[in-house]
């Protein structure tokens, strides 16, 4: 019997019919079923990226101190959990006249984004010039030269601290590429490409706003193993149990151990002339230490002998690998 392959539209229609039938009592409800396109190239990214979380926390600590010094006010700057979003979806939620900064991450390829919305821009501006942190914004137009220069100063401060936070993990040189105020012009990767995003909570004068740092997955893919690695000393119980099982299994395995008494090289002519009673000289004398190989790898040196009537090998030294 041949199988029929359903198209995506036929599958959606079938799910819709099943949902309707379930509501009418004619069959099971499929209202909770979500169709999945097997041809989709959407990446599966783990919810915990441990090393990147460490980088974000260190950056938050550094930038909180730097911004407090710059504004001469107490500032709170905290890292929120890492999330993922498609580039198009993320930028569609960014308001016009936001400070969208495109940042290079040499030697990694591609660019990251630092997104500071309009209200956060004016909160920082008001605080810097001695205000009480009033939040006001405009929805059209452009930032004035003074406002643009101030935000460039804030972004450069962020890049300096973010570069320091990255240094223990992977040395990157962060550089300001360009600034945009319209999200449509800040598409650093295709709309459906995944971004690793972190929002940082900024609290000034009792008012809380957010700053978002977004890094395309292709940019950090070459160092992905570093970012997902467990910290030293942070080993799960399951991993410890697995290591114990492997160790116990290894201890019961058998290996070939060979002690070499000596070696000799003979030509084919000499080999053909050998007869009973001939003596072959080897490259060892009786006072030399013999070598012992484990699965073909030299591990020990020692001397031959006997023990309880059996041939034996006494280890005199261990060969370090």
Decide which structural class fits the backbone: alpha+beta
CATH class identity of the largest domain: Alpha Beta
Number of strands: 10
- Strand line-up across the major sheet: 1-5-6-3-2-4
What characteristics describe this protein?
2 domains, 4-stranded antiparallel β-sheet, Chemotaxis protein chec, alpha+beta, 321 residues, Surface presentation of antigens (SPOA), 6-stranded antiparallel β-sheet, single chain
Commentary on this structure:
It is a single chain. This protein has helices spanning 8-23, 50-71, 87-92, 118-128, 145-166, 217-220, 224-228, 237-251, 268-272; strands at 75-86, 99-106, 111-116, 173-180, 194-204, 207-216, 257-260, 290-294, 297-307, 310-318. The protein is elongated, with a radius of gyration of 34 Å. It contains nine helices and ten strands. With 321 residues, the protein is α+β, with helices and mostly antiparallel strands. It has two domains: 50-228, Chemotaxis protein chec; 254-318, SpoA-like (Surface presentation of antigens (SPOA)), CATH 2.30.330.10. The longest helix has 22 residues, at 50-71.
């Amino acid at each position: 019997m041949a199988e029929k392959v359903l198209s995506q539209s036929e599958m959606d229609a079938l799910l819709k019919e099943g949902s309707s039938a379930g509501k009418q009592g004619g069959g099971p409800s499929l209202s909770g079923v979500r169709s999945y396109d097997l041809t989709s190239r959407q990446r599966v990214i783990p919810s915990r990226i441990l090393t990147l979380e460490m980088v974000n926390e260190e950056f938050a600590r550094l930038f909180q101190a730097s911004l407090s010094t710059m504004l001469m006010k107490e500032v709170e700057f905290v890292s929120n959990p890492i999330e993922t979003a498609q580039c198009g979806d993320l930028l569609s939620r960014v308001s016009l006249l936001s400070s969208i900064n495109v940042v290079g991450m040499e030697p990694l390829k591609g660019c990251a984004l630092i997104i500071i919305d309009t209200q956060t821009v004016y909160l920082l501006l008001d605080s810097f010039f001695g205000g009480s942190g009033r939040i006001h914004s405009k929805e059209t137009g452009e930032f004035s030269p003074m406002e643009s220069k101030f935000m460039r100063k804030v972004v450069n401060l962020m890049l300096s601290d973010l570069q320091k936070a990255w240094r223990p993990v992977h040395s990157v040189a962060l550089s300001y590429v360009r600034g945009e105020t319209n999200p449509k012009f800040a598409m650093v990767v295709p709309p459906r490409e995944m971004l690793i995003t972190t929002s940082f909570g900024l609290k000034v004068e009792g008012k809380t706003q957010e700053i978002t740092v977004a890094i395309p997955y292709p940019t950090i893919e070459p160092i992905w193993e570093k970012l997902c690695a467990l910290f030293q000393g942070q080993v799960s119980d399951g991993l410890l149990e697995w290591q114990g099982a492997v160790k116990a299994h290894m201890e019961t395995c058998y290996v070939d151990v060979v002690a070499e008494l000596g070696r000799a090289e003979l030509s084919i002519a000499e080999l053909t002339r050998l007869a009973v009673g001939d003596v072959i000289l080897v490259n060892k004398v009786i006072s030399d230490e013999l070598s012992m190989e484990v699965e073909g790898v030299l591990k020990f040196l020692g001397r031959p002998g006997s023990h309880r009537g059996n041939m034996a090998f006494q280890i005199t030294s261990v060969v370090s690998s």
